[in-house]
Specification:
Blueprint (H helix, E strand, L loop, with lengths): L5 H10 L5 E10 L11 E2 L1 E14 L4 E6 L7 E4 L13 H12 L7 E7 L9 H16 L6 H16 L6 H8 L4 E6 L5 E5 L7 E11 L2 H19 L13 H6 L6 H22 L6 H16 L4 H12 L4 E5 L4 E9 L3 H15 L5 E5 L6 E2 L2
Helix pairs in contact: 2-3, 2-4, 3-4, 3-5, 4-5, 6-8, 8-9, 10-11
Bound molecules: adenosine-5'-diphosphate and magnesium ion (MG).
Length: 383
């Protein structure tokens, strides 16, 4: 392969030999369908142009040597045989998790030298963790001829995060990183992983999608996620349903009457959110992209008022963006911080971003990072 890329050059400098190949996996933003993936529901992410690149070379001595340009501490060295969940500190647990999961699934894979470079903001709700995992999964797939499809690779990467890293995430992030295509949003049914590319041509519609990374992540995030997930599962069980996805929108009112008061808002969010995914896809299919705006804003209200996962910073970003002329805006990702997306008319992005920055400064929040996103390609081999 070419050694001209910076990732490959860094690899060669670090490890003293050239990589066998280079792969990249993107971060994502979810347009709509939040907290639906662990309810067997629907999601509609796009891949970001931001991605994690990995240069890789197999080793035959059972060692995993890992380096990230985005992490302190130099090369991390781990014997593959000694990997145990909870046993790897720091960022290296994500790539190690994928190797451990592949081996647990019976794949005869060993150590490797892996060098990472990424421009996916970390901890911003843009799925840098899935980008890291999926880059490793693809590198191992190709270097070992594992013949894994998109869904199989995504499930392995999700299991890696669930069972080794210890984060009970759903399947959206890994499916988005592996399965998205340039110019489209990915409509994913998280029950059976069936999917469809939905054309999302912002430029043709005279629109821009702003991503506003609030740069805050409140501590609540991890504990609250498990509680919300358990609440949704309890509600489904009380209703005698396999998952909340099986509750249709027109059965919502009757179902709510049968549930304890504290579970009702959770169920209302999940059911109306699945319906918002359906509405959004209908609008995209009809080429009515601007009409998606109010659906996004309604989704934010539901996350804020019913699901209770927004926070002052995401609420302020949404309110300010809409007041500044955005067609719609919502927090994206798990919540309690992270990022907000705003759909704006082409050319308005700068004004909306400036208003949000000013509102953050006035409220005493740190400066957000704002960029424009276009739907990019999913994970793939680069060389
Ligand atoms: P998100 O997936 O929303 O970015 P997470 O908390 O799930 O947030 O994952 C972020 C963590 O993933 C970081 O704290 C770090 O440990 C790890 N990580 C992601 N990308 C990289 C990278 N390129 N280099 C090193 N660590 C990374
Ligand atoms: Mg993550």
């Amino acid at each position: 392969m070419s050694t001209t890329t910076s990732t490959a050059a860094a690899f060669t400098r670090l490890f003293g030999h050239a990589p066998e190949g280079e792969w990249a996996a993107p971060g994502r933003v979810n347009l709509i369908g939040e907290h639906t993936d662990y309810n067997d529901g629907f999601v509609l992410p796009i891949a970001l142009p931001h991605r994690t690149r990995v240069a890789a070379r197999r080793r035959d001595d059972g060692l995993l040597r890992l380096h990230s340009a985005q992490a302190e501490g130099g090369v991390v060295e781990l014997p593959v045989d000694g990997l145990t969940p909870g046993g790897v500190p720091g960022w290296a647990k994500y790539p190690a998790a994928v190797v451990w999961t592949l081996r647990r699934a019976g794949h005869r894979v060993g150590g490797a030298d892996l060098s990472f470079e990424s421009d996916v903001p970390t901890g911003a709700g843009l799925s840098s963790s899935a980008a890291l995992e999926c880059a490793v999964a693809l590198a191992y797939r190709d270097l070992h001829g594992l013949g894994l499809g998109v869904a199989e690779s995504a499930l392995l990467a999700q299991q890696a995060e669930n069972d080794f890293v210890g984060v009970p995430c759903g399947i959206m992030d890994q499916m988005a990183s592996l399965g998205c295509e340039e110019g489209s949003a990915l409509l994913l049914d998280t029950r059976d992983l069936s999917r469809r590319q939905v054309p999302f041509d912002l430029a043709a519609a005279g629109l821009e999608l702003l991503v506003i990374d609030t740069r805050v992540k409140h501590d609540l995030a991890d504990g609250a996620y498990a509680g919300l997930r358990a609440g949704c599962e309890r509600a489904a069980a009380l209703l005698g349903l396999p998952a909340l996805r099986d509750l249709p929108a027109d059965g919502l009112t009757a179902a709510l009457d049968r549930l304890p008061v504290e579970l009702r808002p959770l169920v209302r969010h999940v059911v109306t959110e699945n319906d918002r995914v359906r509405q959004t896809v209908e609008l995209l299919d009809a080429g009515e992209l601007a009409a998606v705006g109010p659906v996004l804003t309604a989704g934010h209200a539901s996350l804020r008022d019913d699901f209770g996962v927004s926070c002052p910073e995401t609420d302020l970003a949404v309110e300010t963006a809409v007041a500044a002329g955005a067609l719609g805006a919502r927090m994206t990702g798990g919540g309690f911080g992270g990022s907000v997306i705003a759909l704006v008319a082409a050319g308005r992005g700068g004004t909306v971003a400036a208003e949000v920055r000013a509102a953050f400064a006035a409220a005493g929040h740190g400066a957000p990072r704002v960029f424009t996103a276009t739907p990019a390609a999913g994970a793939r081999r680069l060389g």
